[in-house]
Design goal:
- The protein folds into two domains: 129 residues, Enolase-like, domain 1 (2-Layer Sandwich); 221 residues, Alpha-Beta Barrel (TIM Barrel), CATH 3.20.20.
- 33% of the residues lie in helices and 23% in strands.
- It is built from 13 helices and 15 strands.
- A seven-stranded parallel sheet has the order 5-6-7-8-9-10-11.
- The protein is globular.
Length: 368
């Protein structure tokens, strides 16, 4: 296999409604799409880097720079036997996993198409459908939050995740538990708290949450270990885990009982599989987090979530929750039972809508 050229595109997609976390509010997604020509077969990938460096240091601009000025040079003209080799070719670039993932996942898509098999099968996935949850941003008030949760439960979603931050936390969880005593419920803090907040966070134990996600610093595994020893509620790590080494340290230190795997955060399918396999060997369940992806990134998440240790409902939800109109055909849909059927068509199983993508493109660069 040889990548003959890549095409970078920046598209703008407006969310149906603003999405608010402890980082701030998002209403327009700037998304970098990558089209890879692998011996004449086209594969698609997506960078999940955000508009600002609040979730992590990567942004749309850094991803474009790394892909254009560095990543392409490392693979240009190189023969590889499989997409699984791309990650190692990009190892000279330190960090910038969201940029790397855009390129790496596109080549996986192309390889699966060349072999006329679903990407999920090429990755080693075993699930015919995946369980789905939703992530609900901070709402204007408790009545609005309850109404939002009722709507998502009626749509069949199996798990509800709410965003919290200091001052907007316990009253939300308490209200939801009183209204929905039996649902699978979790809270995501996006690093908004400090270890000194442990007495406050311990109050969550009374609400029997599935987990609290990333309560402390984005790079602070040690303090999460100290916090987990004080909580009955399982801690799930997100921002702290960028590779297998981080995961091994977190597990060995007792910093978490669950790990969220995001393709962009860890660099693509090959490193995600290694992380999945490590967690499985340590009896640590994993689930797939979301980054407000378009249908292309969402399709890659579906494929990855078909691996056996993705045993908890992830943030992979329907296109229509976010976009008036997605960029793939068919759009990603969730069944009444709260699942997504894993596509059986070759590659990611969803066809990019080129006319729609072109109409949303604000810049393009072809590298060959």
């Amino acid at each position: 296999m040889k990548v003959r050229k890549i095409t970078l595109r920046e598209i703008h997609l407006r969310l149906l409604s603003p999405f608010e976390t402890s980082f701030g509010k998002t209403d327009l997604r700037r998304i970098v799409l990558l089209e890879a020509d692998v011996d004449g077969t086209i594969g698609w990938g997506e960078s999940t880097a955000g508009e600002n460096p609040y979730y992590c240091y990567e942004t749309v601009e850094t991803a474009w720079h790394i892909l254009s000025d560095h990543a392409w040079r490392l693979i240009k003209g190189r023969e590889v036997a499989a997409a699984s080799e791309i990650w190692d070719l990009l190892a000279h670039i330190r960090g910038h996993n969201m940029a790397k993932a855009a390129l790496e996942t596109a080549i996986w898509d192309a390889e699966a198409k060349q072999k006329n098999m679903p990407l999920a099968k090429l990755l080693g996935g075993t699930r015919a459908e995946i369980p789905c949850g939703v992530s609900i941003g901070i709402q204007p008030g408790i009545p609005a939050l309850i109404a939002k949760v009722e709507k998502e439960l009626a749509a069949g979603y199996q798990r509800i995740k709410i965003k919290i931050k200091p001052g907007v936390d316990m009253e939300l969880v308490r209200a939801l538990r009183q209204r929905f005593p039996q649902i699978r419920l979790m809270a995501d803090a996006n690093s908004a708290y400090r270890l000194e907040d442990a007495p406050l966070l311990k109050q969550l134990d009374a609400f029997h949450l599935m987990m609290i996600e990333q309560p402390l610093g984005y790079d602070d595994i040690y303090s999460h270990a100290a916090l987990q020893r004080q909580l009955e509620t399982p801690i799930c790590l997100d921002e702290c885990i960028h590779d297998v080494e981080h995961a091994r340290a977190a597990i060995d230190l007792g910093a978490c009982k669950i790990i969220n795997i995001k393709l962009g955060r860890v660099g693509g399918h090959a490193p995600a599989r290694r992380l999945h396999d490590l967690c499985q060997s340590k009896s640590i369940p994993v689930w797939c987090g979301g980054m407000l992806e378009s249908g292309i990134g969402r399709a890659h998440n579906v494929a990855m979530s078909s691996l056996s240790n993705f045993s908890l409902p992830g943030d992979v939800s329907a296109s229509r929750r976010y976009w008036d109109e997605d960029i793939v055909d068919p759009e990603v849909e969730v069944t009444a039972q709260g699942t997504i059927r894993v596509p059986t068509a070759p590659g990611i199983g969803y066809a990019p809508r080129l006319d729609r993508i072109e109409s949303l493109t604000v810049r393009r660069e072809v590298l060959q």
